[in-house]
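Lecture 7 notes: from sequence to structure.

We start with a single chain of 420 residues. Read the sequence below before looking at the structure.
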Amino acid sequence: MANTYIIKGKNPLQGEVQISGSKNAALGIIAAAMVVDGPSVIENLPKIKDIKILLEICQELGAKIEWLSENSIRFDPTTVNTYQAISKKVSKIRGSYYLLGAFLGKYHKVSLLMPGGCDFGARPIDLHIKGFQALGGDELKDEDGVISIKAGRLRGAGVFLDTVSVGATINIMLAAVKAEGITVINNAAKEPHIVDVANFLNTMGANIRGAGTDVIKITGKPYLAANRSYTIIPDQIEAGTYMIMAAMTNGDLTCKNLIPKHMEPLTAKLIEMGAIVEEGADSIRVMLMPGEKLKAASFKTMPYPGFPTDLQPQTTALLTVANGTGRMIESVWENRFQYIKELQAMGANIVTSGRLAVVQGAELQGTTVFARDLRAGAAMVTAGLGAEGETIVTNVYAIERGYEDFVEKLLAVGADIREE
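Now the structure, written as tokens:
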């Protein structure tokens, strides 16, 4: 297993890159596959560490998983023999918390070791619990990091989320698909992967309406027949990362197999900064002519359809080489600027105050930097691609949690990068 990436910068990325299936959608859909009452075929699964770990957890719980191709599985939950997901693997990824909603919906009880994931601030699950309690999850325990919830009966209810939460929206949806009656989630998150999880469940026989809006209505059904196949949407964050890298390197890169509408918040900003962006039916081409400089811009992360927090670190790296003064406001997580000292070590001129980063354009110089988390790691690679000299990125495990064939894809479009 590679521990570091070694990058020589200033090589324009040129050609085409295929975008893989959505990490965030896949995590929700695998948990949703545990709710249904028969096997399903899941296609366009990304080959990344988070997905591998979640599938291993499901297998340990009794699910049968057959690989049909590199990115396609047959998932059979009918052999699951427990409602307790308490192995150490569960704590390795944040997406494992979707098993709370899945098992509560299927068995009316669940025990789960609290999950991990990237560390950039508090990730309370109080909104998830509030939703479960509204549906009838009235017995709640939290002992030694294990959350246990029981419901004598699950009944549809109205749930208002105090803040927009992707995780809570999906988890409540998973619990509600088998609850008696109708559940209405108000102030629901609208991200594309929420729509994808709802579409998967509907394909398997659920009745969910309104996903992608702020009101989701779920009519519970006691039985979800499955026995169908479903293809996961493309990963908007992977696509955005490569679009940013194209601009960073004055490249000419076409991202294939994406949904252009999902990329609109980034596309608009890249055009504002001076990049040329051409949309196709399922592709986006990003160009910046050799010698041209980007112009600084101001960004504010927001829930979808706003600018995604998961593209914030990569975009901040891009701002470091733009002419003028750029601003990044992080409104989703309270502590997602931990990586900035790594960019500063490369010569970036960045000043932070709370959730604001002010970035003055400068020349980056290669050095050794640490991938603090998944998207911060992608930002370090982005910076390395645009820097003079050699950049060494350590802790690349964090990056490979969420990017399929990352080095291979970069090599294929002209990056000078190797693993050690």
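The domain at 23-231 is CATH 3.65.10.10 (UDP-n-acetylglucosamine1-carboxyvinyl-transferase; Chain). Keep this in mind for problem set 3.
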